[in-house]
Design brief:
The longest helix has 22 residues, at 115-136. The chain has a single domain (11-275), classed as Alpha-Beta Barrel (TIM Barrel), CATH 3.20.20. Helix 3 (78-98) packs parallel to helix 4 and helix 7 (189-198) runs parallel beside helix 8. It has 276 residues and is α/β, with parallel strands linked by helices. The chain is 42% helix and 15% strand. An 8-stranded parallel β-barrel has the order 1-2-3-4-5-6-7-8, surrounded by 8 helices. It is built from 10 helices and 8 strands. The protein binds zinc ion. Residues 143, 177, 179, 206, 250 line the site of zinc ion.
């Protein structure tokens, strides 16, 4: 029986996944490994000509999938909320210069501020920057975060909440990023993915795995296959809902960043083909 050629046509890797590499190295090595998409974290662009970096990506055959990240809209004082809106406006300019069609929003939360107040501020923040995003042709993806981050990173913790805020804003430029790490535990996940599909708002799909025990709340994500997330099943739901974009490997891992990144990237491609 002939083996099919490995299909990496929908494989995207986030620059933060190979954080020790400068973006120029990431672009070159991703392309050499057959990766076809790149999601750029804003810190990777520090000190660079953003338009030239976008051109370098395209010249290497990589699609700019998204810019990570905007958001962090809630703040107790109005000045803080205004500063967040200004920062999101800069992110829109950066995405447009890079040629990225999407910004992922880590929406924000403030310890001690009621979550519903933060959600209202998130909605107002998105609505404030939406005209500029639409004019630039840049979409915004609300990424629900696991509830362990509800204190300070996001008051949007389920796909239902993300769908609700998208329904309220009701713009073709506002949708969701489905990240298996944040959402795999949710008993309503399949139904909410279907709801996203009906509204055509799945803008991004992020993959990695959940390790047991998780030793760090932020920087101990696993490579696909190292944990307990039914990645293939969730990917199936997302695809049934009409999503045909990239599968984005987004791994924050002190353990994996400490090793050789070239070896790690080879393992990512292998794990993508086998376990996701
Ligand atoms: Zn993500």
């Amino acid at each position: 029986m002939a083996h099919p050629l490995p299909d990496t046509s929908k494989l995207c890797v986030h620059t933060i996944t190979t954080k020790p590499w400068p973006i120029e190295t990431a672009i070159e090595r991703f392309a050499a490994h057959g990766v076809k998409g790149i999601t750029v974290w804003r810190d990777a662009l520090a000190g660079r000509d953003i338009a030239a970096t976008g051109q370098r990506m395209r010249d290497a055959g990589l699609s700019a999938v998204s810019l990570c990240r905007g958001g962090f809209f809630p703040a107790e004082m109005e000045a803080g909320r205004r500063a967040a809106i200004d920062d999101n406006r800069r992110a829109i300019d950066e995405a447009a210069a890079l040629g990225a069609p999407l910004i992922v929003l880590v929406c924000g939360a403030v310890p001690g501020q009621p979550l519903d107040v933060s959600r209202q501020q998130i909605r107002e923040g998105i609505e404030a920057v939406l005209p500029q995003a639409a004019a630039a042709g840049v979409k915004l993806a609300v990424e629900p975060l696991h509830p362990m981050y509800a204190d300070s990173r996001s008051a949007i913790n389920t796909l239902a909440q993300a769908n609700d805020i998208c329904d309220a804003i009701d713009s073709p430029f506002v949708g969701v990023a489905v990240d298996v790490y944040h959402l795999w535990w949710d008993p309503h996940l399949q139904a909410e993915i279907r709801r996203c599909g009906e509204a055509e708002r799945i803008f991004a799909f992020h993959i990695c795995d959940w390790r047991t025990p998780t030793e760090d709340l932020l920087n101990d994500r696993g490579l696909m296959g190292e944990g307990c997330i039914p990645i293939r099943q969730i990917r199936g739901w997302v695809e049934e809902a009409g999503f045909d974009g990239f599968n984005e490997v987004e791994i924050f891992s002190t353990r994996l960043w400490e090793g050789d990144q070239e070896t790690f990237l080879g393992r990512i491609v292998e794990a993508y083909l086998q376990d996701s």
